[in-house]
Specification:
The chain is α/β, with parallel strands linked by helices. The chain is built from 12 helices and 9 strands. It binds ligand C2E and calcium ion (CA) (3 copies). This is cyclic-guanylate-specific phosphodiesterase.
Length: about 280
């Protein structure tokens, strides 16, 4: 280990300092991992739901489920602070199943209450994308009685590209269950346009990195309009995420992007606040 070797040569005190730091980092990680494991069992995870609207009609089309951790001491923690840890430790398998079940239960609850049908999108991480995913999704759909055609599975290019043939097979099986597939963070991973055609996709989600500087940044204008026209010719719906300004929304609408998600329209909401939106969407 280069850092350790260097420190050793600078004398004993430094050596102890470095190993101490490293021990703290390792034990912090372990205790965080244990806390998360406990947290899942103790029902400390919560889902927020961010609405996605049809740009043309303004109608609520669906929501994306986004996980949060209500930590007993640290308060509300965002996914960027624990999803990577869950992925490294393998906990993402249990966490991912919890998220899917919770989202489907919530969706089924809304349907039972007579609210208009909306789609629920759930993020699937690379580690979940392996043997057992299809049977897990199938089991959760059966248990919760949530209609598969209301479920959207969001996954990234890198998840699919790491083993493209396996991905095609798995996506075909997920589609056979009735679920929809959305390619998340499109344009940020290493994508192969040839595979875009071979993957059985329904939606392309334009990453918010490309939306942020619209409509002023000429490169982002070129990239987003190319993505939208590519999607149209491949018969895919486009979803733009991270929309924060009316100018961004107007540009995307003019380019023919169909669906919109972002702080301008709605922040991620707790379930009861989604019900308000659903209420507004009800015919009188
Ligand atoms: P993502 O899938 O790209 O989700 C969208 C993120 O963008 C969310 O952050 C959302 O709050 C944020 N966002 C939405 N609109 C705007 C906007 O207008 N401006 C800005 N600046 N941000 C906006 P969040 O909830 O912190 O989630 C971060 C990431 O964590 C997600 O990125 C996703 O990759 C991951 N994640 C969240 N929930 C899950 C989950 O249940 N499973 C897995 N595997 N990953 C999850
Ligand atoms: Ca997503
Ligand atoms: Ca995204
Ligand atoms: Ca992202």
């Amino acid at each position: 280990d280069a850092a350790l070797y260097h420190a050793k040569n600078q004398g004993r005190d430094q050596y102890q300092f470095f190993t101490h730091e490293m021990n703290v980092a390792v034990s912090e990680r372990l205790s965080m991992e244990n806390a998360l494991r406990q947290g899942i069992l103790r029902d400390e995870l919560k889902l927020a739901y961010q609405p996605q609207y049809c740009i043309e009609t303004g109608r609520l089309r669906g929501v994306e489920a986004l996980v949060r951790w209500q930590h007993p001491e640290k308060g509300l923690i965002g996914p960027d602070q624990f999803i990577p840890l869950a992925e490294e430790s393998g906990l993402i398998i249990a966490l991912g199943e919890w998220v899917l079940r919770e989202a489907c239960c919530q969706g089924q609850h809304w349907l039972k209450q007579g609210y208009p049908t909306i789609e629920i999108a759930v993020n699937v991480s690379a580690l979940q994308f392996r043997e057992g995913l299809v049977s897990m999704v199938s089991r959760v759909l059966t248990e919760t009685e949530f209609p598969p055609q209301n479920l959207v599975l969001e996954m990234t290019e890198s998840t699919l590209m790491s083993d493209a043939n396996w991905a095609i097979e798995t996506l075909d099986e997920l589609k056979a269950l009735g679920a929809w597939i959305s390619l998340d963070d499109f344009g940020t991973g290493y994508s192969s346009l040839a595979y875009l055609k071979r993957f059985p996709l329904d939606k392309l989600k334009i990453d918010r990195a490309f939306v942020r500087d619209l409509p002023d940044d000429a490169e982002d204008v070129a990239i987003t309009s190319a993505i939208i026209s590519l999607a149209r010719s491949l018969n895919l719906l486009t979803v733009a995420e991270g929309i924060e300004t009316p100018e961004q929304l107007a540009f995307l609408k003019q380019q023919g992007c169909q669906l919109a998600q972002g702080f301008l329209l709605d922040r991620p909401l707790w379930g009861q606040d989604v019900e308000q939106r659903l209420q507004q969407a009800m015919p009188d």
